Structure formats: structure tokens, C-alpha cells
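[Q] Does anyone have a clean C-alpha cell version of this?
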Amino acid sequence: MGYPASIFLREVPVRDVLLLSLVILAACADSNPVTGSSAGGENAGGENTGAGGEGSTGAGGLGGNSTCEEDPCKLIAPQCGCGADEACSISGSGSRQCVLAGPVAAGFECDDQNYCEPGSVCIGFDGAPTVCAKFCGGDDECEAPGGKCVVTINGFPDDPVCSENCNLITNLGCSVGGTSCQYDVTGAIPFTACRASGAKQQGDSCSVTSECAPKHLCAGEGANECRMWCDFALPDCPANTVCSAAEVSPEIPLIIGTVTYGTCVPT
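[A] Here you go.
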């Protein structure tokens, strides 16, 4: 039995201002870097490293349950195949293993002293705290309307986790400091996720959304700038700006739940 592997996200430069990428990479127990990508936006790709402990991978792990329907253990809660104080997780190579379990629920901060509860795994953004993410088998197991079962770890599509359900305008749903609610699309379906944030405000120049403060998107026509999110039906934008509807593709508005989102564009 070992410690849960740390898994990291890294943002890549915005290629299309309406698409952000979720890139998830894991590292092996010996901290050797591995590479991979995530499902979600068209921009997925990149590299990163992380540290993690090596877990038991035998039938059921240490103290495992040989009657578990998945071998060596089951990732999605309720889990099976591991001991009473263990959780089924994955290594940097994508193999399942039993690791020490903790009390931290999905969406809350985790580290090498505060482990995730069974059914979730500790992931993080470059420069931001790590948080627990829930393993899932479909969108119905994630929190609606923004949470989707679209994030893959190290490019392995068989063991996805849920993205966070959050509000782009208020940042509600991103409780961990240093993160902001952002969005991506899978196919034509938008989803939300809590990603690394910065401090730049409305009108400040930017190259990626992680440079902007929460409640902002890096966008523009030509030179990009941080722009506040707004509700297109009930706009609340700063002076000398107007709420312009955002689109996931030409003539397809960005709608998540009941909100049609826009950004505050200079007039």
C-alpha cells in the first residue's frame, strides 16, 4: 500500500477565446515525468509532472476483497477490492492500485497529508492547490449543470473524473483559493471546471485566462484582454462596456443550465 498519486492540470495558451483546455498529467511514484492529455476541449495536450506513492496492485490490494467485480479494485464509489482504510486509485501509468484513504470529499483541497475519500483522486492545476475529483462513469454521476464526466487522467479514457460544477459569473462552486470557474466544451456541450486564476481585471491584457481574476475570461478581437462574465438576460457590466453573448461555436450561444453567458465588451 502507498500514498495517493498526485495528478496535475496545466493550462495551455488559448487558441480560440471561447475554448479552454483541461490538461491532466500524472507522475509515477518515483517522480519520473509522464505525459498525456485530457478529454474535453479541442486544445487538449501538454506535459507536467507530479509526485505520488506507489500502491499495491495485487488482487484486491493489501487486505483486498477477492469478490470485487473489477480487478484489482473498483474506482467509482461504492468501491471494492481494497482494505478498510484504503481507496482504489490510479498510478501515473494508469494502472489501478490501493492507496491510503482519507476524509477529503470531492471539490475540497487535498495534499500528501490530507487524502481523498474513496471514489475520488487528488488533482491540481499548475500553481494552484490540489483538490479531490470524483471518479465517474457518466455525466449523471456529476453535479449538474456544469459538472461533466469528461476529464481523463494521463490520457486514459477508461477512468475519467467529474469536472466541477461552478458559476462563471459568481465563481460559486470553486471554494479553493487560487482557482476560478472556467469553461470548456466536449463536442458541442459546454461544461465548467475550477482552474488556476490570476489577478488581472477588466481591460487588462492577457494571453490565457489563468492570468485573469475569478469571474473573468481572457478574450478579445486581436489583442486579448480580461473581460468579466455576465448574464446575457440580466447584464451587470462596468461602465463603458456592454454584455455581448458568448458562443461555443458560430450562432450557438454558451448556455449552462438556465444561464446564457456573455462577456463585458468595451463599447
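[Q] Thanks! Anything notable?
[A] The two ends are 59 Å apart (CA to CA).
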